[in-house]
Amino acid sequence: MLLLPRHPVLSSPALPSSPSPSPSRFRPLPCTNASTSASTAAPAGAFSVEDYLVTRCNLYPNVAARVAPELSAIKSPSNPDAVLAFLASALELSPPLVAVAVARDPAVLTCSVPRTLAPRAAELRALGFTTFQMGLLIARCGAAAFRSPDLVPRVQFWLPYLRGRVDKLVAALKGNPGLLAADLRTVRHTVALLQEEGTLTDDDVGWFAISYCSKLLTASPDEVDAVLARADGFGVLRRTRAFKDAIIAAFSATPERLAWKAAFFRDELGWTEAQVKTAAAKMPTLMTVSAERLRRNWEFLNTEVGMDAERVASFPALLRYDLEGRLVPRFRVMRVLQARRLWRGRDFNNIAAITEEDFVAKFIRPFLVNVPDLAKVYEAAIVKKEAVKHSS
C-alpha cells in the first residue's frame, strides 16, 4: 500500500486529524535504498519534492521516488500545503485517503485551490453533492477526475438517468469509476445505440449504470457492436423490450459460457435443442443462472410438480425463482387446496409467477375458513427454508 505505518501523518496544524485504518488494510511496503539516498542527497535548506511526499503526504519512500519526477516544477511547499489542507478540511478526507489521492494523482499538488479545486467543489455542491460524497468520488475515481474540467458535464449527463439521485451515482462509481472518466461523445453514442436497438428507457439506462452491466455503457463502439451481435444469437428481435434482456445476457457471459450453458440443458437436464432455444428466446437471462439452481429447480418442477421440459421452456422464469422460498411453499399450498377440492386449477406457473401479496390475497386468505391451518402450512415451509439457510 502507500502509507508509512509509523510515520507522522500530515502533521500541519491546519489539517484535522482522523482515525487511521487498521494495520491489516495498509500492509507495509519495503523501502528502496535508491529513494533513501536520493532524499538525503538534497542540498541543505533546499526544497525536496521527494522528502515532502514522504514527510507531509505520508507516502512510502519508494513510491515517493517514483512519482517525484512528475512534480519537478514545485519549488516550495506553499501550494502543496494549500492542496493538502483543502483535501483534509474542505473535503474531509482522512490522512490515509489523502495519501492515496496524492499517490494516484501527484499532479493534484500543483493545482490551484482558489482557481480549480474550490470552484469544483462548489459546482458539485450546487448539483447536490455532500462533502462526504465528494470524498467518495475522489476515493473511487481519483483526484484527477475531481480536478478535471469535464467532471461537471459528465455528472450532469448521468444524473437524469438516475432521477437526479447523487447517491445512486456515487454508488455506481464503486463498480465503475469509468462513468466519470469515459469520453462523453462515445458514451452518448453507446447509450443512444442501446436505447434504439434494445428499446431501453432512461430508467433502464440508470439501472445499467448501477448494475453489473455498467461497463457496457462506457465500452468502445466495437465492444458494444460485439455484444449486440451476441444478443442476436438468442433469437430475439431487436427493437423489442425482450432484446434488453438479450443484451444483458450477452454482456454478462462470454460466448463460451453461453455455449456451455446450452450444452448443460441438453446433456445434464435432457432438454432438446428446440426447447433450449425456446427458453432462451423467452428469457435470455436464464442462460446466466447458476447450473446448481437450474438443476434443483428443474428436478423439483419435473418430479414434484409434474411439468415436462416443453412446459417449463414456455415459462422459463420458473427456473430462476427461489426454490425453497417461493416454489416449494406455494406448491404445498396448491396441493392442500387441490386435496380439499377448493381449487381445480393446474397451472402452477401462474401461482409461482404472481407477487407475494397477490399470492396471499388469492390463495391464502379466501380459504382460511375452510382450511384454518393453510397459513401455517405456507409459513412452515418458509420457516424451514430460513432454518436450512442459517444452518448451512
TrEMBL record:
<dbReference type="GO" id="GO:0009658">
    <property type="term" value="P:chloroplast organization"/>
</dbReference>
<keyword id="KW-0806">Transcription termination</keyword>
<dbReference type="GO" id="GO:0009507">
    <property type="term" value="C:chloroplast"/>
</dbReference>
<protein>
    <recommendedName>
        <fullName>mTERF family protein</fullName>
    </recommendedName>
</protein>
<dbReference type="GO" id="GO:0006353">
    <property type="term" value="P:DNA-templated transcription termination"/>
</dbReference>
<keyword id="KW-0804">Transcription</keyword>
<dbReference type="InterPro" id="IPR003690">
    <property type="entry name" value="MTERF"/>
</dbReference>
<dbReference type="Pfam" id="PF02536">
    <property type="entry name" value="mTERF"/>
</dbReference>
<comment type="similarity">
    <text>Belongs to the mTERF family.</text>
</comment>
<dbReference type="InterPro" id="IPR038538">
    <property type="entry name" value="MTERF_sf"/>
</dbReference>
<feature type="region of interest" description="Disordered">
    <location>
        <begin position="11"/>
        <end position="31"/>
    </location>
</feature>
<dbReference type="GO" id="GO:0003676">
    <property type="term" value="F:nucleic acid binding"/>
</dbReference>
<keyword id="KW-0805">Transcription regulation</keyword>
<keyword id="KW-0809">Transit peptide</keyword>
